[in-house]
Amino acid sequence: MIITRYVGDLEKDSPIFYSDFLIIGSGIAGLFTALKASTYGKVIVLTKKTLLDSNTKLAQGGIAAAVHEEDSPFLHLEDTLEAGAGLCEIDAVDVLVREGPQRVRELIEAGATFDMKDGNVSLTKEGAHSKARVLHAADATGEAIRSALVQKCQESPDITVLENQFLVDILGDHNQQECYGALIYDTKKNQTNIYISKSTIIAAGGNGQLYKYTTNPDVATADGMAAAFRAGCSLIDMEFIQFHPTVLFSRDTQRFLISEAVRGEGGLLYNKNKERFMHKYHPLEELAPRDVVSRAILNEMMTKDSEYVYLDMKHIPNVTKRFPNIYENCLQNNIDITKNLVPVSPAAHYTMGGIQTNTKAETNLYSLYACGEVACVGVHGANRLASNSLLEGIVFGQKIIDNVEEILYRRKITPEEVFKNYDSTWVFTSENPTIEPNQAKKQLQEIMWEKVGIIREETGLKQANTEITEIYKNLAPSDNIVSYYEAINMLTVARIIVQASLWRKESRGGHYRSDYPKRDDVRWIKHMSFVNC
Ligand SMILES: Cc1cc2nc3c(=O)[nH]c(=O)nc-3n(C[C@H](O)[C@H](O)[C@H](O)COP(=O)(O)OP(=O)(O)OC[C@H]3O[C@@H](n4cnc5c(N)ncnc54)[C@H](O)[C@@H]3O)c2cc1C
Fold first, then answer.
1. Same domain for 220 and 102
2. Average of per-residue pLDDT values in the chain
3. Rounded distance, CA 183 to CA 167, Å?
4. Which residues form the Fumarate reductase/succinate dehydrogenase flavoprotein-like C-terminal domain (predicted)?
5. 57 and 178 fall within a common domain
6. pLDDT value at position 82?
7. Residues 89 and 140 in one domain
8. Is the confidence at residue 66, as pLDDT, over 90?
9. Quick one: which atom of ligand 1 is closest to the CA of 62?
10. Whose CA is nearest to atom 38 of ligand 1?
């Protein structure tokens, strides 16, 4: 592998900013952590585009927590372990399910409103949950949470939230494995800034944009994982990608999700010939695990030579009230869900792997933390249980703040230390700069979709490896510096996903190999991690 430590240049005259908590990302993980941190010190939240650009904003179905008296953290733990297909870290899941209910109460105190029924919070049962435990705000739960957290953060005198601030690199002492802060590119002022902080928290979300078709917004370009990897963090479980089965078919590459809750409420799948097919693939039919439904749909699409299958929601009682957001979005595409079948196909949705952390959300670099989708603490294993990811962001964000005394006690880092430990010879340079970033991204997304997607096999993965390495070597700088950084990040993380997928010679959860279609518990109850060295 070609090793690179930085992608950005540290300039002597760059402005320098200081904080106690530097948070990268304004999704649920970043904003919740900011709110909690603000009781103790100065918080800066930096986000790549606007506060509206995150996976959190798009989350539909809800947030899972054992809040009902007939439910328990233990049952939630059992369901999470079952979905994780043998690879969950039980200590991490234990923290998630035990501390989840209290964190959800705090979300409500922060102003997030969930649907109510008979004076109690209304709970839905989603696929693979044994109890109704998903709190929701119609079909726009993420936005209900996001807007409440944004308002609280903006009201706090101790939190500064800045948009259009792109994380370029993590700064620190490479030998001592210590983080000092981050190099940030201000995309409005076209200027590089240095942020020095007692703690740096990466909450920069997932990787969906590595794939041609995804539910994720354009900010999900793996920047957080790539920057952490360059700095010496370990990335783990990277082969496990969740493909959501039912995404509204369109000519766009970023596609609109049709929540799993629709199938939970009775939505049915039909192939091109208007035949139901899920009974051929799994006893739970439409409520089978996401990876099974995605492969079934793909198979029906291939055998029937079609670009989509159909989801029938017409018969669901009060469907427009229960799913107003889905109703509106389909209507904008001239599909009336009360009258028409909805064309759907799978798309990349969620990154199970990420920056390896322990249950305190610590990475292997001192003073660098990660939480939310960018991190991998081990709660999802090989496959995420629906509605556990919003929960993960708040539970492990809080774990960072549980350690606040130690954080505040740290010495102040000087600019001299930052410059002394930056080596400009470690900045990425291309061997043969001929492919411009946007072209590189498009090529990468095609390769990942075709060869590292829902169904993988050795020949395709090897080809992907060669092709992606070629693009990486030939990537050319561009005036659009953000696009250039994103392309490097996407290529960096894609290469790790390909390598992990090649090495894991079995099928499990979000990783399916047609040449090794069986789960192999004798050889493969283990994780693979990658470190830049
Ligand atoms: C359509 C959709 C529906 C979903 N539905 C559900 C659901 O019902 N329940 C559930 O639990 N989960 C759901 N998920 C998953 C869930 O939304 C995410 O896992 C979760 O919101 C991740 O939160 P986060 O804070 O870690 O990341 P995000 O919400 O993605 O936030 C990441 C932030 O980092 C910023 N960022 C990225 N790169 C940089 C950079 N270089 N510099 C600075 N900032 C950067 C982004 O702009 C963004 O603000 C859904 C996801 C999608 C896409």
1. yes
2. 96
3. 6
4. 442-528
5. yes
6. 94
7. yes
8. yes
9. 8
10. 204
Q: Are residues 178 and 107 in the same domain?
A: yes
Closest residue by Cα to atom 9, ligand 1, is 387
**Inter-residue contact 280 to 145 (CB < 8 Å):** no
Catalytic annotation, pick one of 146, 230, 255, 290: 290
Report whether residue 350 contacts ligand 1, using a CB cutoff of 6 Å. Answer: yes
Distance 522 CA to ligand 1 centre (A): 34
* The pLDDT of residue 2 is above 50: no
The tens digit of pLDDT for each residue in 330-370 reads: 999 999 999 999 999 999 999 999 999 999 999 999 999 99
Domain that holds residue 504: 430-520
Q: Measuring from atom 8 of ligand 1, which residue has the nearest CA?
A: 61
Domain assignment present for 7: no
Q: Does residue 339 belong to any structural domain of this protein?
A: yes
The reply to whether 85 falls in a domain is yes
- 460: domain CATH number is 1.20.58.100
- The domain spanning residue 310 has which CATH number? 3.90.700.10
Q: CA dist 372 to 169, 225, 369, 377, 478, Å?
A: 19, 12, 11, 9, 31
27 lines ligand 1 (CB under 6 A): yes
Regarding whether 248 and 236 lie in a shared domain, the answer is no
Residue 314 pLDDT: 96
Within-domain flag for 8: no
Instruction: Tell me, yes or no, whether 404 and 434 share the same domain.
Output: no
First to last CA, the chain: 10
**Assigned token pair, 274:** 């208007």
Q: Residue 106 belongs to a domain with what CATH number?
A: 3.50.50.60
Distance, in Å, from the CA atom of 168 to the CA atom of 146, rounded to the nearest integer, reads: 24
* DSSP line for 406-435: HHHTSPPPPHHHHHHT--GGGB---SS--B
What confidence tier does 306 reach under pLDDT thresholds 50, 70, 90? very high
Structurally, how many domains does the chain consist of?
A: 3
397 lines ligand 1 (CB under 6 A): no
Say if residue 291 is in the same domain as residue 329: yes
* 495 carries an active-site annotation: no
Compute, in angstroms, the gap from residue 393 CA to the centroid of ligand 1. 9
**Which helix (DSSP H) or strand (DSSP E) does residue 403 occupy?**
none
Whether residue 3 is predicted with pLDDT greater than 80 in this model: the reply is no
Q: How far apart are alpha carbons 131 and 495 in whole angstroms?
A: 39
Last residue of a domain, one of 314, 347, 380: 347
Span 83-92, pLDDT tens digits: 999 999 999 9
Clarify whether residues 339 and 387 are in a common domain: no
